[in-house]
């Protein structure tokens, strides 16, 4: 442990260095798994933290005990990666990275000799969104893809207003201290470790005197928990897609419209018209519905 801490402290010192970065435009595969996409390198990662991500997808079935994550109800799970560079960071789904990599490596096998397409199993999908802190400098950039359209939101890169508490815990061998904050419509409790002296964390969380190893909302709907830490030497790059840049709240409103009524969303945004032949299965699958959960950020309703 001490050796690991010394390595991390030494690497943390490198974060304070501001060496000029070379911009690289290429068409190679990326950390996040996309291939044949023009990308720009913006930093080199020296630290990787892997998180378990869990989200309850039916909060109405949680019962009266809403102070803890209830895993007996339907939930979403994912493996998320945080890459920390010299002056920025990148947070993405490792599950989706594996899916994209498998798809890119095998997509030509989908086509049969007669030109037909065979169904292939490329594994489990994960979160499609990606998050870049302090890229561009002073900004927090969020990207997602909804039905073929790449969305981008940009906001000021700023820490949450944390209150450090007396509670302690241990996460993957690192002693942690407790903190709490309110952020975008949820109250959050975090556990951070000063033994990794980097003011970073999963998703949009940052601003504590150490790496955030675990954080969950007090309603028990969302949880990020570190399961591994390691040194890496990995370039980080940003895909240059044709993004639709929208305000943050507009993105969440758009995503909600898609989740509630995907067919209506497609008809309103594709320029075509999609109709579903009526039967009991399609009626249930494609009719508009109310969500049984809410998103990480809840202030988009205001």
How would you describe this structure to a colleague?
18% of the residues lie in helices and 37% in strands. The protein has one domain (2-246). Strand 5 (130-133) and strand 6 (139-146) form a beta hairpin. The protein is of the alpha+beta class and 302 residues long. The model is unreliable at 1-35 and 64-74 (pLDDT under 50). It is built from 5 helices and 13 strands. The protein has helices spanning 2-15, 94-106, 248-260, 262-269, 280-286; strands spanning 25-26, 39-56, 75-85, 89-93, 130-133, 139-146, 149-156, 163-171, 174-183, 186-193, 211-217, 222-239, 243-245. Strands 1, 2, 3, 4, 5, 6, 7, 8, 9, 10, 11, 12 and 13 form a 13-stranded mixed β-sheet that branches.
Average pLDDT rating = 80
The assigned structural class equals alpha+beta
How many domains make up the coordinates? 1
| Largest beta-sheet details | 13 strands, mixed
Rg over CA atoms? 21 Å
Q: Ranges with pLDDT <50 over ≥5 residues? A: 1-35, 64-74
Approximately what portion of the residues adopt beta-strand conformation? 35-45%
- Please tell me what the overall shape is: globular
List the secondary-structure elements in sequence, H or E: HEEEEHEEEEEEEEEHHH
SS field, number of helical segments: 5
- Overall number of strands: 13
Could you give the distance between the termini? 46 Å
Helix content: 10-25%
Descriptors:
single chain; 13-stranded mixed beta sheet; 37% strand; alpha+beta; 302 residues; 13 strands
Gist of the model:
This protein is of the alpha+beta class.
Spell out the blueprint of helices and strands:
Layout: H1 2-15, E1 25-26, E2 39-56, E3 75-85, E4 89-93, H2 94-106, E5 130-133, E6 139-146, E7 149-156, E8 163-171, E9 174-183, E10 186-193, E11 211-217, E12 222-239, E13 243-245, H3 248-260, H4 262-269, H5 280-286
Parallel strand pairs: 7-13
Antiparallel strand pairs: 1-2, 2-3, 2-12, 3-4, 4-5, 5-6, 6-7, 8-9, 9-10, 10-11, 11-12
């Amino acid at each position: 442990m001490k050796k690991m801490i010394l390595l991390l402290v030494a690497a943390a010192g490198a974060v304070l260095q501001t060496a000029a970065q070379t911009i690289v435009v290429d068409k190679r595969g990326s950390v996040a798994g996309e291939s044949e996409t023009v990308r720009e390198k913006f930093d080199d990662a020296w630290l990787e933290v892997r998180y378990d991500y869990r989200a309850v997808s039916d909060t109405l079935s949680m019962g009266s005990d809403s102070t803890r994550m209830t895993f007996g109800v339907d939930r979403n799970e994912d493996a998320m990666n945080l890459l920390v560079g010299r002056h920025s960071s990148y947070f993405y789904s490792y599950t989706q990275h594996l899916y994209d990599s498998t798809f890119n490596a095998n997509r030509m096998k989908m086509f049969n000799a007669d030109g037909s397409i065979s169904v292939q199993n490329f594994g489990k999908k994960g979160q499609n969104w990606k998050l870049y802190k302090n890229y561009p400098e002073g900004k927090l950039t969020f990207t997602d893809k909804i039905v073929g359209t790449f969305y981008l939101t940009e906001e000021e890169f700023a820490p949450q207003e944390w209150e450090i508490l007396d509670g302690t815990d241990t996460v993957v061998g690192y002693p942690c201290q407790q903190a709490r904050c309110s952020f975008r419509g949820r109250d959050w409790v975090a556990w951070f470790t000063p033994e990794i002296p980097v003011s970073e964390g999963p998703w949009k969380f940052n601003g504590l005197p150490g790496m955030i190893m675990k954080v969950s909302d007090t309603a028990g709907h969302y949880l990020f928990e570190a399961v591994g830490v390691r040194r890496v030497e990995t370039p980080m790059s940003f895909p240059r897609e044709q993004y639709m840049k929208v305000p943050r709240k507009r993105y969440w409103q758009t995503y909600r419209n898609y989740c509630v009524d995907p067919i209506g969303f497609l008809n309103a945004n594709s320029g075509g018209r999609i109709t579903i032949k009526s039967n009991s299965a399609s009626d249930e699958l494609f009719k508009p519905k109310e969500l049984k959960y809410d998103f990480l950020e809840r202030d988009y309703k205001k």
